[in-house]
Every structure is written in C-alpha cells, then in structure tokens.
Specification:
Helices cover 58% and strands 21% of the residues. It is built from seven helices and seven strands. A hairpin with a 4-residue loop joins strand 5 and strand 6.
Length: 205
C-alpha cells in the first residue's frame, strides 16, 4: 500500500526521535540479523561438509567440539566485530537517535523518516553504494539500494495477525503470519488510544 494513500485518510500522525543504541528493541533486531547470519554460515558449512566429507558438520562439532570451533573461530570473531562496529556506527552517525514520522489510520500503519533524517539516510546510502563500486563489492551496492527503497514501511490491517504491546517504550509491534512486520513508537499522550484502536482493527479483520 502506498504511503501517500494512507496519509490521505484521517487518523493519527506524529513525529518522534527513537533511541537506537540504548533501545533494547533495536539492539535485539541487530542481534537477530547477526544470528541469522551465523545460521546461514553454519548451513553452508553443513552443505560443504556433506558434499566434501559425506558427514554432518553438526555431528562432527558434537563429537569433536575443540577442533570444530577452533576452525570456525575466525568467522565468529568477524561476526562479533561486525556487531560491535554496527553499534558504534549507529551511535556516531545517528547520534543514538532516528527522527521518524509515524501514522495510523483505517488502512493500516506506517513509518517514514523525517525530511532531515531522510537526507542523512540518502547520504549514507550513496556512500555505501560508492564504496561498493570502488571496491567491486556488489553486495554493498545491493544493500545500499535495498536500504534506500525500504525507508518507508507500512502494513495494512489485513496483514496484521497479532498486536504486541510494549508499554515501557510506548511502542506497538505489528506481527504478520511469520514475523514482526513493523514497530511504531507512540507518544505518551496517544499510546493507549492507538493501542486500543489497533486491537479493535485486528479483531475486525
């Protein structure tokens, strides 16, 4: 659903700066990304070990933990390094804050960066894309393009299967059939009203 269509209806719209490094929800999301990376890395090891040695890497790791993890240490250290660098980069570049614009109406829920934040995001995307071109890294170029075109996020009520209330952050998580599709951060004065409204819309669908 296009953002412009959603904004044309009546509802709530507000701006809020969301903490990043000091926000356990954000840190949790980063941890999930790297956990998935480790899972993919381990799956690749499983496939390679099966085709090369006709054995399971997991079984080998259970039987010979010292040898298995010693060989994988560099990869795990590299992933840990990326986690630390990501957190430091967020703290420096975004100054531990992301200026977001949120909205809720009859069509669904959306989030987009405020104008100043969008300019910052675009500068970072161009930098990452340029570094990818200079270093011949298509992965970096692709990541920059994906990040640029996924700044605006929205979810319709028909997609939402479960509402998660996070009162400690005045936040609401909107889950579809398999994951949390979007988290919005409300203001103290509109949190309860929007939460009740969200529950009513999900019960309708």
């Amino acid at each position: 659903m296009e953002l412009s269509q959603m904004q044309s209806r009546t509802g709530w719209e507000w701006d809020r700066t969301v903490n990043l490094v000091t926000n356990p929800l954000v840190i949790g999301s980063i941890a999930k990304v790297f956990a998935i990376s480790i899972g993919i890395f381990w799956l690749l090891l499983e496939i390679m070990s099966w085709f090369i040695a006709r054995t399971s890497m997991t079984l080998y790791a259970i039987q010979h933990p010292d040898k298995a993890f010693k060989g994988a240490e560099p990869a795990f250290y590299f992933i840990a390094f990326l986690v630390i660098i990501s957190i430091i980069s967020i703290a420096i570049v975004f100054r531990n804050g992301y200026d977001a614009h949120f909205g809720v109406n009859d069509d669904g829920v959306w989030m987009s960066p405020q104008p100043g934040q969008r300019k910052t995001n675009d500068s970072i995307h161009r930098l990452v894309f340029g570094m990818g071109v200079l270093t011949g890294k298509p992965g970096a170029m692709g990541a920059a393009m994906i990040a640029k075109y996924t700044q605006d996020k929205s979810v319709s009520w028909t997609e939402v299967k479960r509402i998660e209330a996070i009162p400690s952050r005045n936040a609401i998580g909107f889950h579809d059939s398999w994951h949390c599709a979007l988290i919005i951060y409300c203001l103290p004065e509109n949190y309860k009203a929007i939460l009740q409204y969200a529950y009513s819309k999900v019960n309708e669908s």
